Amino acid sequence: MKAKKVCFTEAAYFIGIFILALGTALMEKANFGMSMVVAPAYLLHLKLSQHYPIFSFGMAEYIFQAILIVILTAIMRNFKKSYLFSFVTAVIYGFALDIMIWAVRAVPSEGVIIRTVLFMLGLLFGTIGVAFLFHTYIAPEAYELVVKEISLSRGIKIEKVKTVYDCISCAVGILMSFAFFGFGQFEGVKLGTIFCALINGKLIGLIGGALESSFEFKDALKLREMFNK
Predict the structure, then answer these.
(1) Cβ–Cβ < 8 Å for 16, 140
(2) In a 10 Å sphere around its CB, with 0-12 CB exposed, 13-18 middle and 19+ buried, how is residue 27 labelled?
(3) Which residues contact 62 (CB under 8 A, 6 or more apart)?
(4) How far apart are the C-alpha atoms of 42 and 60, rounded to whole Å?
(5) Beta bridge partner(s), residue 215
(6) Would you say residue 116 has pLDDT above 60?
(7) pLDDT at residue 104 tops 80
(8) Angle at which helices 9-30 and 112-133 pack, to 10 degrees?
(9) How far is CA 4 from the centre of its chain?
(10) CA angle (97, 119, 29) in 5-degree steps
(11) How confident is the model over 163-173, as pLDDT tens digits?
């Protein structure tokens, strides 16, 4: 049996953030609809940037995730230190996302075929990024934190919780699109969003299994206890 390679959980944290940011930037470039997870934040960005051009997608991300953390605290009836670290992760991700959007700005996106390739690459990178974030003790983004906390507290498989969360997020995105831009006009939430909602949870489960079969995740630093409080 082939020995597994070691991947430090701290490295998995940063790998996950930047791969996820790249995936989101590629999906934004494809314009087939954002992942249902980030669709609400993207719609917030589209709406507010009309009046405040400086309001970036990354800024919308950590503002929306702060709201999610407040909601999670109400659901769990408890505030953990890890929730605060999760907001720090959201800020880091927000900056990474803005950098990635800038980095892919020159990538051609003309034609259905090229846009489809960009969308599928974005979807793949996004799920790989999330799978890495599920293998670190450092508090993930609020999106992953909500799924992880509910899964652990309720004893439900994480991919099932992820699928339900994605569908709810997709519905919220559709309502926000109608509220911001009117009925019959879909912004940010398109066919690609629905596609992601249906397969994202399962795909993350498959990629997570592939990572676990190839890597042994170990802590390089003795900080796990601090992040789990």
Answers:
(1) yes
(2) buried
(3) 87, 90, 91, 93, 94
(4) 7
(5) 5
(6) yes
(7) yes
(8) 160
(9) 27
(10) 50
(11) 788 788 888 88
* CA-based nearest residue to 17, from 135, 118, 123, 141: 141
Residue identified by tokens 């003795």 is: 222
Place of tokens 């004893």: 155
Residue 105 DSSP code: T
Three-state DSSP class for 137?
A: coil
pTM: 0.85
Digit-coded pLDDT (tens) for 56-101: 999 999 999 999 999 889 888 888 888 888 899 999 999 999 999 9
Furthest C-alpha separation in the chain: 59
With beta carbons less than 8 A apart as the criterion, state whether 214 and 12 touch. Answer: no
Cα-Cα-Cα-Cα dihedral of 200, 60, 169, 195, to 10°? -40
CB 13 within 8 A of CB 19: no
What ranges do the domains of the chain cover? 7-217
